[in-house]
Amino acid sequence: MKRFVAVTLMILALTASTIACGISTKVSGATSVPQGSKPTQTPQSPQPSPTQPLPSIIATQSPEPPPTQVLPSSTPTEGIGSSKISSSDGMTQVFVPAGQFIMGSDSYDAILSAPVWLDAFWMDQTEVTNAMFAKFISAMNYRTDAETRGYGYVFPISSDDDAKISGATWQHPHGPGSDLKGLDQYPVVQVSWNDATAYCEWAGRRLPTEAEWEKAARGTDGRLYPWGNQVSAGNLANLRDKQLDPTYTVDDGYAGIAPVGSYPDGISPYGALDMIGNVMEWVADWYSDPYPQSDQTTTVVNPQGPATGESRSMRGGNWHSNNDNDGEYRLASHRNKNLPDLSADDAGFRCASSQ
C-alpha cells in the first residue's frame, strides 16, 4: 500500500513538471521586468496584407550640419553697387540694372518724350586712361587716326575755337611740345571714334549707346546731373572754372584735364565717375538732330540710333564747358558730335559691355 502511494505521487510530480515546461516554452522570449517597475508595452504595427505593396520611404529632411560647419553663401544678385574688374586693362565696371528711364530734356537737340527701356549692362567707372591705352597700343601695334593723319585738334585756353595742330597725337595731346609724363591716370585724348571702337573690341567690351551712356549718367529719376539737380560746384565736376577763365568764381582744382576719378562727390546713381566734364566721350550711335526717338508715344526698347550718318555722337561735356545757354553743355542729356576719324584734346571715351 505504501508502495502504491509513492508511485502515484511520482506520476503526479512528473505531470506537473511537464505542464510547467510547456508554460515556460510559451513565454520564452519575453523581456524580464525588474521587480517593482511598470512594464512598457510596445505596440506592433499591423502587417500589410500579402497583396498590399509596402510604402516607399521618402527622405523629407537632410541631416543638420554639425555646429562648426559653415555653409557657403549663395551668389548675390547683381544690382546697383555691383562691380567687376576687366582682366584686359584693369578697368572697374559698374552695373546698370535693366529698366526704363526718361531720356533727354527740353533743351537743344536732346528732346525725347517717351521712356526708354534698356537691358542690363556694365559701364566703365571712368574714362580709359593713358596707361590703359598704352597697353592696347603695345599689344596690338596699333596706329591711331591722328598719327596717320598727322594732326589733331587742340583747344587753346585763350579762345573758344579748337585749332588744328600738326603733331598732336595721344602721346602729345596738346601738340609736339607736350607729352604724357606724370599723366598715366589721366584720360587718354586725341583718339578718334575709330580708335575708341578698336580699343573697346581689344578689351572685350564695346562703346555704349547714347541711351546707355545717359542712363548710367543720370539714373531713372530725371535728374539733370549725375549728382542730382544742384548746379555744378568745384567738388562735383571738372568744367570751366576761374583757373581757365577769371570771370568764373568756381575753382575745381584744374585749369585743364584732371586725373580720372578726381570728383567722387559727382558720382552717378550707379557709381560711374566723371560723366560730366573732364573730357567728352564717344558713344556708338550715329548723330542725328533731333534725336531719332524723339516724340515717340510708346516705350522705345534698346535704341541704337540711326543706321547711317556723317558724324558720331559724343556725350558729357568737357573741362572747358561753359555756362552758356543756361549751362546746357553741362547737362547729362546734352549731345555733341564729331567726324569718326577726328580727334581732339578734350575728347576721350569709356567702354560698356552687355550683362
Topology:
Layout: H1 2-27, E1 83-85, E2 92-96, E3 99-102, E4 115-118, E5 121-124, H2 130-140, H3 145-149, E6 151-154, E7 163-166, H4 193-202, H5 210-218, E8 280-286, E9 300-301, E10 312-315, H6 324-327, E11 335-338, E12 347-349, E13 352-354
Parallel strand pairs: 4-9, 8-12
Antiparallel strand pairs: 1-2, 2-5, 3-4, 5-13, 6-7, 8-10, 10-11
CATH class: Alpha Beta
Mean pLDDT: 81
Task: Say what the CATH topology is.
Answer: paralog of FGE (formylglycine-generating enzyme)
In total, how many domains does the architecture comprise? 1
Notable characteristics:
four-stranded antiparallel β-sheet, 14% strand, 355 residues, alpha+beta, four-stranded mixed β-sheet
Brief summary:
The protein has 355 residues and is α+β, with helices and mostly antiparallel strands. It has helices at 2-27, 130-140, 145-149, 193-202, 210-218, 324-327, and strands at residues 83-85, 92-96, 99-102, 115-118, 121-124, 151-154, 163-166, 280-286, 300-301, 312-315, 335-338, 347-349, 352-354.
